[in-house]
Amino acid sequence: MALFHIFLVAIIQGLTEFLPVSSSGHLILLSKVTPLPDQGLAIDVAAHVGTLGAVVLYFWRDTKVAICGVPRMLTGRIDTPGAHLALYLTVATIPVSIAGFLLKITGLSDAMRSVAVIGWAMILFGILLWWMDQRGPQTKTEGDWSFKDAVKMGLWQALALIPGTSRSGITITGARQLGYARSDAAKLAMLMSIPTIIASGALLSLDVIKEANMALARDAAIAAVFSLFAALLALALMMRLLRSVSFTPYVIYRIVLGGALLFIAYS
Questions:
Q1: pLDDT, tens digit (0-9, with 9 covering 90-100), for 1-28
Q2: Contact (Cβ atoms closer than 8 angstroms) between residue 72 and residue 56
Q3: I want to staple 197 with a disulfide (CB 3.0 to 4.6 A). Which of 52, 218, 240, 254 is the partner?
Q4: pTM of the prediction?
Q5: How far apart are CA 38 and CA 2, in angstroms?
């Protein structure tokens, strides 16, 4: 695989994974609207590993708390902040894991990978994000996250399996609807990405193992590194911007891109 192609995939994945603009939609479009071939599952998984590393590093303090809480959660002792966080992240990952597995075994995940689906999802879920962001109160912080809210945000996150929706975007939409402040909504969405990326990566890895070879392993390693640095940049930029601006700029981008995609799909 050409180095430029690997670099392009990794940068797109890294920059768009945590911005509410749909990384999967952009990656699908790369092969749909350019002469470049589909990068394949192995590079997809590697790019996701890179973004996983980025969010773990950026939110290392919270990640460490959750990791330390896992043993207590597994033994049923939900009596520390870490155990609560580990439980809520686990609960929030269940809906998307079940839905993702069902879509994979039924083949519906491939059927939805079309320019028209991505275009409509970009526009509709972008408008929904804007609506919830404008109307939702900002009365809750990350410290108010509860089991009930984790379940609700997990259900919102399952919608991200529709290409063009954006995992971070739809999760932030759910958090804003529940009343979380913008920066706290974004942080919770980022933390929820950790077990979600692990789960999706594990599922995709079953297919990747069958085609593994040294050349592919080298390409995957390069993709992971590029994706990690791009994702760190995107995370830092978004979290800083949310102190002073809303999600409207991302919504405008989604609507413009979605409109262009629908024009391409139906012309």
A1: 788 899 999 999 899 988 999 887 788 7
A2: no
A3: 52
A4: 0.90
A5: 12
